[in-house]
């Protein structure tokens, strides 16, 4: 058996760091190809600004400057899924407020990589984390929400 050493965790990674300036404290992020150019893009929750940042990947390890979209009062988590069945990636942001937290759903709009004004839905007491899946097996993305202050999980579906 070979001994583990701290360099094992970097095998296969190139030795450079790409820093992207985003106006955020305590960022949470997800990735998907939001502009459908086959390259992974980043979406970051910006709790201090009430926005999410969309950072488009160039496919060579670099990214565009962030584009910001309104996302509610205090977005602390983001997830990406197709919430309206149009086969385009949409964004959901968890707004961690108490006693009634919300989710902001930003549907893909217009040109690829752009999003409509968010639709707000109730989510429980202090939504903190999100997961996307087809939990009811109806073929549509559903949202699971972990609520920090309620110590429970909410599930929202179509």
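-> sequence recovered:
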């Amino acid at each position: 058996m070979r001994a583990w050493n701290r360099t094992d965790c970097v095998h296969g990674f190139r030795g450079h760091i790409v820093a992207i300036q985003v106006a955020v404290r305590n960022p949470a992020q997800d990735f998907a190809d939001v502009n459908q150019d086959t390259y992974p893009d980043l979406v970051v929750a910006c709790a201090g600004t009430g926005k999410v940042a969309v950072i488009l990947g160039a496919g060579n390890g670099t990214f565009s400057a962030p584009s910001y979209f309104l996302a509610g009062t205090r977005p602390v988590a983001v997830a990406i899924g197709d919430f309206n069945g149009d086969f385009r990636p949409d964004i959901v942001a968890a707004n961690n407020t108490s006693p009634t937290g919300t989710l902001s759903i930003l549907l893909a709009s217009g040109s690829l990589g752009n999003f409509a004004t968010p639709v707000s839905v109730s989510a429980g007491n202090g939504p903190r984390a999100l997961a996307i899946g087809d939990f009811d097996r109806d073929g549509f993305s559903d949202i699971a929400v972990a609520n920090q202050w309620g110590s429970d999980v909410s599930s929202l579906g179509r």
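Confidence is low (pLDDT under 50) at residues 1-14.
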